Amino acid sequence: SLVEKVEGKESPFALLVLNKGGDHVDFVYSGVRKDFKIRDKNLKKLNNTKWIYITSLEKGWQSNLDKIFALNKPKIAWNPGNKQIRAGLPKLKKYLTRVDVLCVNKDEAIELAISAPQYTNKPKSYLNNTRNLLKILKEYGAGTVVITRGKGGSNVYDGNRIYSQKADTTKK
Predict the structure, then answer these.
(1) Which residue has the higher pLDDT, 85 or 16?
(2) Phi, psi (5° rounding) for residue 19?
(3) How far is 16 from 9, CA to CA, in rounded Å?
(4) Distance CA 57, CA 36 (A)
(5) Where are the alpha helices (DSSP H) in 2-129?
(6) pLDDT per residue over 12-47, tens digit each?
(7) Phi and psi (nearest 5°) for 34?
(8) Which of 110, 144, 150 is nearest to 130 (CA)?
(9) pLDDT of amino acid 170
(10) Rounded distance, CA 85 to CA 109, Å?
């Protein structure tokens, strides 16, 4: 009931090109996503859901997030997009305190960490340590922090323990 079709607009898509070494190039077409707007008429329906998953938002992203994060019932999982990552931790803190699960890749975690004044001049070895990144993001308010590391697997921090999961590198 919350799916909307926008006449005359195309769906977004992304194409990821990988080489054997793991380097990649993203080709992204935002399509209708760039016009995405949370409508007030949908807020009641959203507030009655158990979970909301938010990913990359474009134009008006702060207004959309303000509406979503003002809801009190649903839990929120968030995978911020480039615009949100570039805004930095200080600007995102008000949202992170309401996030139940924050999911970023390691490069995004580093970018967020160095956006905070107290971490800007930390040595590369400190910022490249996933444990440190998990704790920094948790410090900014997220309930549970997930950092993905491609072939390196992923790590999760709930404030008490750090969990690790190896990547499944078997060819199918």
Answers:
(1) 85
(2) -105, 175
(3) 22
(4) 8
(5) 40-47, 61-70, 82-87, 89-96, 106-115, 124-127
(6) 777 778 777 767 787 777 676 666 677 787 888 888
(7) -65, -15
(8) 110
(9) 75
(10) 9
